[in-house]
Amino acid sequence: MILRGSLGEDATVAPGGERFDEVAAGAGVRIERIVSLAAASPPGHWYDQETDEWVLVVSGAARLEQEDPPGTIELAAGDWLVIPAGCRHRVAWTADGEPTVWIAVHYRA
Fold it and tell me: How large is the average pLDDT for residues 79-98?
């Protein structure tokens, strides 16, 4: 069966919040849509994932921080990056004027 959806479908989230929707998964790969609005990781919280992650900002903007080496990465609509497994990172902020819509693909390299 063919499944169909829209990245803009029900893309509402409260200010300061994030929403994670699994789009598809199988054979070691998981694809999700993330919607953020004026959101940031809690102080001191770092994501430290067991899988690699390819992430694309579809709309909006964000800033990520990485722990080692320390640094920030600015992302605008159309920008993507690969976060290797074990790379500690966090969301410093996402746009507050419109939702930031992301596509994240989690996989094992």
Answer: 96
